[in-house]
Amino acid sequence: MTTELVAMHMSDGIVNAPVSLAFGLVALVGLAICVARARRDLDDRTAPLAGLVAAFVFAVQMLNFPVLPGVSGHLLGGALTAILVGPYVGALCVAIVLVLQALLFADGGLSALGTNITNMALIGTFVGFAVAVAMRPLARRSRAGLILTAFVAAWVNTVVASLGFVLEYALGGQGLALGTVFGLMAGFHALIGIGEGIITALTVGAVAAVRPDLVYLLRGERAGLTIKETTPR
Amino acid sequence: MSTPTKNRRYAGFLGAFLLVALLLAGGASYLASSSPDGLDAVTQSGCEAVETEGGEQLQGECIAQNAGEHATAGSPFADYAVGGNEALTGLAGVVGVIATLAVAGGLFWLLRRRSGP
Question: Is B5 on the interface with A (CB under 8 A)?
Answer without folding.
Answer: no
